[in-house]
Amino acid sequence: MGKVGKAIRATIAAAFILHGLAGPAGTQEHGHDDAVTQPATPSVHVEKMKAGNENFVRLHGREYRLVHSKGQQPSLIVMQCADSRDDLVTQAQLPPGYAFEMGVNAGNIINTEEASLVANIIYHLKHLKGQNRAYVVMGHYGCGGIKGLDEWEHLEPEIAKHLRLALPAKEFVEKQLRNRRLNVSEETRHRMIVEANVLAQIRNLMSIQQVRSAVEQRHLAVMPVISDINTGELHFGLPTLQQHGLLEHAKAEFGIQKWLQGQHRLQDQQLARLGPFRPQDRRMPAESRNFPKTRVRPTAFRRK
Fold first, then answer.
1. Are 252 and 207 in contact (CB under 8 A)?
2. Fewest C-beta atoms under 10 Å: which of 77, 221, 232, 276?
3. Is CATH 3.30.2320.30 the classification given to domain 46-275+285-301?
């Protein structure tokens, strides 16, 4: 065959082997399956993480030593989507030790049959005594998990089993659009489902007896948050459902109206006293000026 023919034959054989190893599951979400044919090179990631960590320690090492000496007492516990572009701690510039993750998965699903998730929740309630505690369930616009609900019959069984707990959100929105004869864009419909899903997951969270008791005794608050990954903006409410007059219906649909109503009134009153929030008006307390400017120490860290 000659050297050229043998080389071509070897290349084709290698391509088939790589394709077989990758299989259908190796195909990426947006069709960029050429990347999976390249061999993994973890050293690239190690170099990137090492360089970033060295810079992080240089900027924040003192802050972390102080946090470590105080122990872990997070005020927030967070459930958010696994989307790599979506992160509450980063988007809200929360200081270290402030937020505890109850879980991260596609579609920010709270499955009370998942032992590790429930264990995180109970651990936070029973062993971590942060002040003014709140549970945040955060969804985000553009969520691939929520969009996947429209292709239910084509999902892999494992993914379909996981996302089934988001189906009530889609069913609620479609029922409301149909009954009210609302004509909205596909993007608006998607945003409605994302927001309704946050309420559906809060219902699942409230089905845990220890959480429900803590909320009823006002030892704990539950907060819906929506992230817009196109802008990085966080919405501390459900603006699309509210805009179309569906918010209260959604709360009632998922049986969480009585838990959210009182605390939202209190939150609205507090926000009204603060006035409009403008990031450029934010000022660091004098005690924090020796710290990196991207972080503001909470009250517990201030010098006495």
1. no
2. 276
3. no
Alpha-carbon span 79 to 87, nearest angstrom:
10
Cα–Cα distance, 17 to 29 (Å, whole number) = 22
44's CB contacts (< 8 A; 6+ apart) are none
Task: Name residues whose C-beta falls within 8 Å of residue 199's C-beta, 6 or more positions apart in sequence.
Answer: 169, 224, 238, 250, 251, 253, 254, 256
User: Which residue do the tokens 């969009």 mark?
Assistant: 147
Exposure on the CB side of residue 205, measured as CA atoms within 13 A: 33
**How far separated are the first and last CA of the chain, in Å rounded?**
82
**Distant-in-sequence, close-in-space partners of 26: CB < 8 Å, separation ≥ 6:** 33, 36
pLDDT digits (tens, 9 = 90+) for 73-108: 898 999 999 999 999 999 999 988 889 999 999 999
Place of tokens 């077989």: 20
Query: Cα-atom radius of gyration of the chain, to the nearest Å?
Result: 23
What is the rounded CA–CA span in Å between residue 87 and residue 78? 10
Give CA–CA dist 68/88, Å, rounded: 21
* Domain boundaries along the sequence of the chain: 46-275+285-301
Q: Give the burial class of 164: count Cβ atoms within 10 A of its Cβ; 0-12 exposed, 13-18 middle, 19 or more buried.
A: middle
Whose tokens are 């190690």? That residue is 46
- For 212-256, what is each residue's pLDDT tens digit? 999 998 889 999 999 999 999 999 999 999 999 999 999 999 999
- CA-to-CA separations, 171 to 52, 176, 180, 194, in angstroms, rounded: 44, 9, 14, 12
- Backbone region of residue 71 per phi and psi (left: phi > 0; alpha: psi in -120 to 50; beta: other values): left
CB 197 within 8 A of CB 108: yes
